[in-house]
Amino acid sequence: MSDKELLWRASMVPRVKKYPFKRVPKIAFMFLTKGPLPLAPIWERFFKGHQGFYSIYIHSLPSFEADFPASSVFYKRQIPSQVTEWGKMSMCDAERRLLANALLDISNEWFVLLSESCIPLYNFNVIYKYISQSKHSFVGAFDDPGPYGRGRYDENMLPEVNISQWRKGSQWFEMSRKLALFIVEDTKFYPKFAEFCRPACYVDEHYFPTMLTIQASNLLANRSITWVDWSRGGAHPATFGKSDITEEFMKRMLAGPNCTYNDRNTSMCYIFARKFAPSALEPLFLLAPKYLGF
């Protein structure tokens, strides 16, 4: 299908709310990657034994051909993809493509966007419970009055978006089926963001947070559940390699700040983390049973 056909097909919703079959709600794990999944062994161990409670979708560069064995959970999970560029609308197109493919499976109820450098911070049962029992979707959407927030707003966004509605957030999200439908069916906000949010306005930081705040702010937790480390400065968070992965690092990553979950305070704010280099696989694999629970 073309993107237009795919989004149209994915936007359809059943009018009869009661399912005529036993439906087990699944989490769609959507990997946005350039090519290989170097941390695949971690994910393989995470998913083991939980068939029927998850789906997997991979959006890679079109030229990449995966060679996962038939026994892998990633086998034949690539979707038809297009070239994506950081900070450009093609990045949001890829995310919409992932969501649309995942929406075609009526059992997918929650949708998580991940990269090839992400890992889970807890075992499958803990993460499934955290996501499925949350009253909110984990999409960051905050009002940044500075040059990297409101400073990127263009008055040509009017009347669809005024500056008081302009939001910024992390690209890495978890959302419900309802919010995913808002994204795939959108024809109102997309043209404005495509035309008027170009570098130094980074559309993957503003399009979904702004649109979903306007459409359904009450459904947003307004925070990401993917841990990153910005302490090293620069436009991108820190990348961790083999020498970084120590027991002290694992403890620090899991300690977390305080946040709210279902309107209650909690210290369990992050259930995924990034960015990990391929060299981090071995120590992560060794420390996962003790610290991550799988």
From TrEMBL:
Pfam families: Branch (PF02485). One of its GO terms (cellular component) is membrane. Coiled coil: none annotated. It is a single-pass type II membrane protein. Keywords: Glycoprotein, Glycosyltransferase, Membrane, Transferase. It is found in: Membrane. Transmembrane segments: none annotated. This is Core-2/I-branching beta-1,6-N-acetylglucosaminyltransferase family protein. It comes from Solanum tuberosum (Potato).
